[in-house]
Amino acid sequence: MITAFLPCRKGSQRIPDKNVKPFAGIEGGLLKIKLDQLLACSRIDSILVSSNDDRVLEFVKKVNDSRVIIDHRPNDLGSSSTTTDELIKYAGTLVPEGHILWTHVTSPFITTEDYNSIIRAYFEQLNHDYDSLMTVLKIQGFIWNKDEPISYSRNELKWPMTQNIKPLYEIDSGVFLSSADNYRQFNDRIATKPYLLEQDKLKSVDIDWPEDFILAELLWNSLGYK
Questions:
Q1: Nearest 5°: phi and psi at 47?
Q2: 80 pairs with which residues across the strands?
Q3: 3-class DSSP state for residue 107?
Q4: Which of 74, 70, 94 is nearest to 82 (CA)?
Q5: Residue 13 has pLDDT above 80, yes or no
Q6: How confident is the prediction for the chain on average, in pLDDT?
Q7: Strand (E) positions, the chain?
Q8: How would residue 199 be classed by pLDDT, with cut points 50, 70 and 90?
Q9: Nearest CA to 61 among 97, 31, 16?
């Protein structure tokens, strides 16, 4: 059994009403887009929307599908000071069995077809000694910290060809997939050996800042998404 866990806390500081504000002319915005994508996914058995935002809760109540479950999240777990670790521990108490697919409305370019493919890849990799999955963006370029490069050595070549640089992987927060048992055992949404599923840049778009919202709308419209 696959339960999609969709956290939508109240009070986004960077993008007010981010979850439900109109996006690319779509009323209900990112929340509507994500619910439509998840509901159309044949491999997902239920969708657990966890929120302390009245606007989110009212929107979800109008969705006429028994697979959608509403969790009225306590306010102390829905503030800007709530840590992801705290929310992960809470999510583990809500889903007694099966597998939890943690995703976000802020990843609108992960489509129904992508979710089906991700779930299929997850079960395939469980047979190859992996115990969980998370989506990532491969970064293969000149990556520095404040003082020096971390993705290559300037002692070898100061400017190597990028295709020869060992890639790094950025967690794009698109999907975390693991068993409910793992949540309770490790207090984490991954376990000890997660499979890193690479996504292209479009799928890895994560709307976190106002500029992200604007660019995502432009991409959505220019690529003909509906």
A1: -125, 115
A2: none
A3: coil
A4: 74
A5: no
A6: 95
A7: 2-8, 46-51, 68-72, 99-103, 132-139, 168-179, 194-199
A8: very high
A9: 31
* Token representation of residue 124: 């395939």
Average pLDDT over residues 109-127: 98
pTM: 0.95
Helix and strand numbers (H, E) in the chain are: 6, 7
In the chain the first and final C-alpha atoms are separated, in Å, by 29
Query: In whole angstroms, how far apart are CA 126 and each of 120, 172, 177, 195?
Result: 10, 21, 11, 9
Q: Say which amino acid occupies 130.
A: Y
Pairing of strands 68-72, 2-8: unpaired
What does DSSP assign to residue 129?
T
pLDDT at 77: 85
Beta strands 46-51 and 68-72 are parallel
pLDDT tens digits, residue range 36-64?
Answer: 999 999 999 999 999 999 999 999 999 99
The pair of structure tokens assigned to 45 is 């058995």
SS3 106: coil
* Other C-beta atoms lying within 10 Å of the C-beta of residue 75: 12
Side chain identity at residue 143, one-letter code = I
